[in-house]
Write a structure and sequence with these properties.
Blueprint (H helix, E strand, L loop, with lengths): L1 H29 L6 H14 L3 H13 L5 H13 L3 H12 L6 H17 L3 H11 L6 H15 L2 H13 L5 H18 L3 H10 L1 H4 L3 H13 L3 H14 L4 H13 L4 H5 L7 H14 L5 H13 L3 H8 L8 H15 L5 E3 L5 E2 L15 E3 L2 H5 L10
Antiparallel strand pairs: 1-2, 1-3
Helix pairs in contact: 1-2, 1-3, 1-4, 2-3, 4-5, 4-6, 5-6, 6-7, 7-8, 8-9, 9-10, 10-11, 10-13, 13-14, 13-15, 14-15, 15-17, 17-18, 18-19
The structure holds zinc ion.
Zinc ion binds next to loops.
Length: 395
């Protein structure tokens, strides 16, 4: 509330300054002896500002601008103010009027067109925004801004093919992280094709985006899905191993696929053997995912979890205190401890975005809060099990 109030006042003061500068310039040049209606409104606006009546002040400044129809800059400033106030219909009218003027030079026309695209975007009129942004994205002052807006628009519409094209254009002009986003768009297309059993579409996309998807962990998971469908569970296991080694925090996404590959005839003991030699950080991610996702029916994961629990600070000390000297957890005890930990963990968020702090119980490749790809990371085990921030999606 306080921040909104301050921002609104800043906008009003900015309008006052812009209009005041312009008015002073015009009246000095024109030498008009009597104050024009616009200047009277401007003075009234300043008076309201002094009396701490910001809403009335803003109304007066906007009327001052409306009374002065001659300048492009003032129309643009007025349109931007209307948009900022949420009066999108008015902003659209101002910018449409501006674009209809024949005397605009190319730079002004480009500026007004971009401003109108922002109005349409804000109003949710995405098709109209897209039509204005497309030519702007081909070159000129607003090229980068228009490309970024188009990406945002296609992501909102989940139009991944167009998002890929725009992402590739952004990568060509060197925008950081664009190649990473393009790889995710390709994975969205492949994932949708697999979900709707369009196996050839998925295969084709994997082939055409080969360069983008090289050493991309999400693509390894999708290749594993395709391999299971093709009756190649061992190949699937190999893809899952690669994905996990490339990005250990994907363990919660990998383990359900391991189970599917095992069900399709893969040898889990053989396929998971490499975990014994994997980095401790990889094993920790896998064990936490196995514990919280209940994958203890896979023997190696059961054994790793048993060892991990006893070595863990806190609960490991408690367990060792109640077990006989040198004893370990029996199967029944292990299941009971894991069930209790799962019950506790269910109350808390499991993922948090490293960019914006959005927390959630469900995994998303793109953070719903700030739209960063790969922003969500599993919380450390202790954060999941001890009272942690509740998932934002639940509140
Ligand atoms: Zn985020």
């Amino acid at each position: 509330m306080v921040v909104g109030h301050v921002l609104r006042n800043i906008a009003i003061i900015a309008a006052a300054v812009v209009f005041g500068w312009y008015a002073a310039r015009r009246w000095r040049i024109g030498g008009t002896p009597e104050p024009r209606p616009a200047s009277r409104e401007y003075l009234a606006g300043l008076n309201y500002l002094v009396q701490d009546q910001p809403d009335r002040a803003l109304e007066a400044f906007l009327r001052a601008v409306e009374a002065d129809q001659d300048t492009v800059e003032m129309h643009l400033a007025m349109g931007a103010l209307y948009r900022r106030r949420g009066e999108i219909d008015r902003a659209i009218r101002v910018h449409q009027n501006l674009i209809s003027r024949e005397e605009l030079d190319p730079r002004q026309r480009e500026q007004a067109t971009y401003a109108l695209s922002q109005d349409y975007f804000r109003a949710g009129l995405h098709d109209r925004a897209e039509k204005l942004l497309q030519p702007l994205s081909e070159g000129g002052t607003y090229r980068l801004a228009a490309l970024k807006d188009l990406i945002r628009l296609y992501e909102l519409q989940r139009d991944w093919s167009h998002a890929m094209e725009v992402g590739q254009a952004l990568a060509r002009i060197g925008r950081p992280n664009s190649e990473h986003e393009v790889a995710h768009y390709a994975c969205e297309i492949i994932g949708a094709a697999l979900a709707s059993q369009q196996w050839e579409v998925a295969r084709e996309q994997l082939k055409s985006a080969k360069a983008e998807l090289k050493r991309f962990p999400r693509a390894a998971l999708l290749r594993a899905d395709l391999a299971v469908h093709d009756g190649e569970p061992l190949e699937a296991m190999e893809w899952l191993r690669r994905g996990l080694e490339q990005q250990p925090d994907l363990a919660p996404e990998v383990l359900p696929r391991v189970r599917r590959a095992v069900a399709a005839g893969g040898d889990a003991a053989l396929a998971l053997e490499w975990l014994n030699k994997a980095q401790p950080s990889v094993r920790t991610h896998v064990v936490q995912a196995a514990l919280l996702g209940d994958y203890l029916d896979l023997p190696l994961l059961r054994e790793l979890t048993r060892v991990h629990l006893l070595e863990r600070p806190g609960i490991g000390e408690v367990l060792r205190a109640v077990l006989p000297e040198g004893g370990t957890l029996g199967d029944t005890q292990l299941d009971a401890v894991c069930a209790a930990l799962r019950k506790q963990a269910r109350k808390n968020a499991r993922y948090r975005c490293q960019q914006c702090g959005f927390s959630t119980t469900t995994f998303f490749w793109q953070c719903p809060g700030c739209k960063t790809w790969d922003g969500l990371k599993p919380l450390a085990e202790v954060d999941v099990l001890l009272p942690a921030p509740r998932a934002q999606e639940d509140t």
